[in-house]
Queue: 4 jobs
Job 1
Amino acid sequence: MVQERNAVRLLVTLEDIDPPIWRRLVLPSTWTFDRLHLVLQAAFSWTDSHLHEFHIGGLRYGNPELLDIGFGTATTFDYRTVRMADFIDRDIAFTYVYDFGDNWRHRVVLEDILALDPLPRHAECLEGARAGPPDDVGGPWSYAEFIETLQDAEHEDHESNLRWAGGHFDPEWFDLALINKDIRNSFRANVRRRWHQPKPLIGKSSKHGD
């Protein structure tokens, strides 16, 4: 008996950032896009504190109760009713937008359709590179300036930006185990989202992706 294809592998990359910030994820194909949203929030260490939507084939997918009031005239299709499986027969890439002010755009590429036995209960990050930017840092171009100020102790914004980052921020940080822990917790009610990177122990280096 041939195992049914029941999962998807996605490559997700933040646009307009160099060197790239990316994650490779596997999740059940029957999951709806509101669940994918929560996985992406955890994978990039976002805090789910802003509006968001998906752009797929020229259409908008999100929560119509939030997005059809004052955020454009195009109809928003309810992402709670649309599954990844509805798109797996297509060669598809789409966009996930988080925070309409900072305009963080994630390019999501459907790399493969998998037959997993057993099907994992949770999504999983297989690999990735670099830390997700802090929330409210201002978008890709402001993020570049933010990194510059952290690297220059004499910059007038150095101390304030360091405090904003929780006292420590390494743009090369990537801890696969911790990110997967965040992903596993992403569907829990009243989950406390991690706002900042863990500070490295004295004498220990941060874990880096490639």
Note: The first helix runs from residue 33 to 43.
Job 2
Amino acid sequence: MNYTKLFRSTGLALATVLGLTVSGQAEVYKWITFKPQGAGDAQAVTTQWLVDEFAKRTGGKHEIEVFWGGSVAKTREIPDALAAGVGDFGDIITPYFPDAMPMNNAVGFFIPQPMGTLEVGQFLEKLHETYPQFKDELASQNLYAFGFRPLESYGLLCTKPVNTVKDLEGLRIRSYGFAYPKLIEALGATPVSIATSEAYEALQRSIIDCTPIGPALARGWKYDEVAKYYIDIPLGASFGHLLAMNLDSYNGMDDETKAIVDQLGKDYLVEYARVLDEDRARVGELWKGDLGVEVIEFPQDELLAVIDDAGIQAVRQEWIDKANAAGLPADEIVSNLKF
């Protein structure tokens, strides 16, 4: 189904039926999200924090109503739904849209990379402030990014212990996105494409031996019930989500409200990183206790030794070529993504 056509042709009608905001003059803006309200993780908790802060900082003049759990648009429908005006705010899982958002997927081409959650978010903020190509890419789709939600720093959660790169040889590791398939191959393992929702069963049934993930997400998906070894291999934080707005909704705001939204995006990143750190620490204590997950330090030098692999470099060069074609100083940008 062509969701772009569907949303653009029915967006106004659907917005009217649901009572959704289609004008920046409205007092109540609508946030459409795939996150369940009761998820209790850092993403859901800080989304509510942002909504509460928006009402507080506008002195109650404006509010945001959240439509949780894909009730208005599913995960892969959100960009088109936002663009069509079905909602005003939403969170977009950026790696799901590599063709529509190649510049904004920069970090996904560079794994491993040395930055953590907060650093990746600040890196994306700087890119948007410095190079118009990043905003223009989204503006062409009637979208505006006012904030960023990177994922946590990743390691590998495995069903067997892994102490060195030799232990990875022949293992089957869940793979997705741009860089992971080639990195997994360079480490001597076999990449297996499996959806996040299917990874629990895949680990349980030994279809895969490991999956890239961070502790907080591993607990959230309960993968740590069936995989008891967390390999602390320094993959860096993956870039996850854009906090986005319908561009028309943003442009329709008065200057004061725009400034509040933009500052909230920056403050959100700091709050989200703080809550995520607390969540990781909590999970670490659970792992030491009844969950019984063993954390194994992986030698960083063994990981870095494979970065020059031809496959890994080809993936990185793919983004560099796209960035150069867009008129960006690619070498300057990617210097932040290298050890």
Note: The CA atoms of residues 166 and 188 lie 8 Å apart.
Job 3
Amino acid sequence: MNSRTATSKGPLIVQRRVVKAALAAAALVVTAGCSSGGSGGGSPVGLNPSSGGGVTGSASSGRPTETAAPAKGSVKVVRTVAEGLKSPWGLAPLPEGGLLVSSRDEGTITRVDEKTGRTTELGQVPGVAPAGEGGLLGIALSPAYASDHMVYAYFTTASDNRIVRMLYDAKKPPGEQLGAPDTIFKGIPKGVIHNGGRIAFGPDGMLYAGAGETGSRGLAQDKKALGGKILRMTPDGDPAPGNPFGDSVVYSYGHRNVQGLAWDDRQRLWASEFGQDTWDELNQIKPGDNYGWPVVEGRSDDPKYHNPVAQWHTDDASPSGIAYADGSIWMAGLKGERLWRVPLEGTRAAAAPQSFLNGRYGRLRTVVSAGGDKLWLVTSETDGRGSPGKGDDRILELEVK
């Protein structure tokens, strides 16, 4: 239960990790264009001062353009908070204590007691149609949660992706604690892949959502389309004041599949993005900027496109959730099966990213600040692409420095 430690993966899964690591190492030896090394493992990275700034490698070779000083940091797995979760995706800490977690495939929201690991199902979200990468995805608490007790959710229906809000009433019996959903925004395109799904309220009280391009690449560059965007709206689902394209919820465009949103201590927005075959990205988001997809994947010399602050080969990351803590962005990697740290200095990376927990818990879906130097981390071995073992999936409590 919650007393399990970093060694809680079963022997079979450990063996699989070893085999996968050996195969990956062999592939690196055979593939001339790829290089191992770099701080903490993964692809090498370097500091590049060009447009957008940040940590990046050469698009032609994967080698660093300049050497970045290695970052200093550590990650300690304090404990396993909960285990046995099925396809967990979104996580929202409750101010009164407890963690809400969404199940992509089951369409349910569950409360986890972070002290005992006990789980209580709030209820099932009606209308969720899980398939491929779609289903019940991100969740967030209302900025006025203390008074309205509203939980927001982003999910895939039979026809679209949409955002709803529901009243959470803990006094009702388990399974009946979610009120009827109030749809605040609909019509976000859906697909078998690239549904985006992360939602978060910003320091401005507005709701931000990562919307994927569903595999239809042209949506990303079409400013009138909702796919391939970061959206910004009021808590009622209206275009937020100050949005860059007039009466539109579109905040930034040229995205492939954004699944990570977080703000730093200076209230700047950061987003992680899945690449296709070459580069995954960490971007600092500016309203109205074009982030390049599908014209550009990763860094470009074209000033029309906002360059990523950091980029990784897709085998090393495939990033989903991100969080800000201890002066760094922390990024959960799915295919990369590791937690990345990107120390910040202004809008740039101060040093080369470091990776932690490499292969230790499998695929990592969501990371959320738990206050101070603590993080909550959600694994994703039961999403159909992992190798689930005893105890999967789980929520971990981390201490970072």
Note: Confidence is low (pLDDT under 50) at residues 1-68.
Job 4
Amino acid sequence: MNTASKSTDAPLKGVRVIEMGQLIAGPFAGKTLGDFGADVIKIEAPDGGDPLRNWRMIKEGTSVWWQVQSRNKRSLALDLRSSEGQDIARKLVAEADVLIENFRPGTLEGWGMGWDVLSQLNPGLVMLRISGYGQTGPYRDLPGFGMIGEAMGGLRHLTGEPGRVPVRCGVSIGDTLAALHGVIGILTALYHRKVNGGQGQVIDVALHEAVFNVMESLIPEYSAFGAVREPGGSALPGIAPSNAYPCRDGVVLVAGNGDSIFKRLMHAIGRPDLADAPDLANNAGRVARVDEIDGAIGAWTATRGVVEVLDALSQARVPAGKVYTARDIAEDPHYRARDMILKQATRDGYEVDVPGIVPKLMGTPGGIRSAAPHLGEDTDAVLREVGLGAEQIAVLRARGIVA
């Protein structure tokens, strides 16, 4: 793919992952493991595969989102609702290190693939289960998507302008947070397995809990003070100044909330009176006068262009930045210098820019080893690995069990 992304010493080389489920949360976890060398076998329904293949913008018959979400994976088109398909899945899991699934709780149990069964087949199995509300509790059986998790986790209440309907952040952040927590759990469980006798375990990730885990002081403030945090628009309530300020040709974000940074910021905008005010020397005093401070910064930015503002604040060593669009990201030299945009060849014959690998391991970096597969492209190869011959595969294909 991109020479900077190839590594012969991938840190998860030799780890086999079976990915079940579809769309975002489970597959994003699989994608992350695949980026670092795991052999990820994605099981898809023969009749259409993962719906993400057809989400958002389509090129050459496939979503470009799919190209990044399913890179470094192999596709096995297998009907998990059939007894034959379930038998094959159990054979795969018996030889795997990790199983990822994001079905509604109870689905795998109904297919004869609950933890009680799979752990007997493979005592070292690490099983990530992502669901709306977790595998236990009174809401366990309710359907849950990422947006519901964001709402229950407390995030949606804080997104938007005060007094207006909450808005989503623009991406499926609830699903992605659940996936990342799942990856943390997988890596932790694999380490535990290595140093504690080879025993696997279940990782139970609920979408709303993954969101809730990043909600900072939300609950401690309610517990200690009875305070219900409310939406603050572009500001960071309780920390000042930290806001978005309009310029002649756009908007800049300014984080001047450090004590020394605030002084430099005020001098940069020509307000030494505020810089030297004794009551503004700490955050508590600045919060009390936040409207005045925001007004002063906004008055200064309003008469200047974005580039001029950023240049001035950079010279003053004040954290500031513009609001990036996709075009800004694609054209930014820093993204390119750090290999955060890579050129990926697709199986459909064109190249597309995709996000690079995060995090960056200096000794054993991740990489893009293979493009996202066509539906069932690796079916025969995977089935041969579990001992099926050509005639057996042909029979399964004729019956629609595999494709």
Note: Residues 1-7 have pLDDT under 50 and may be disordered.
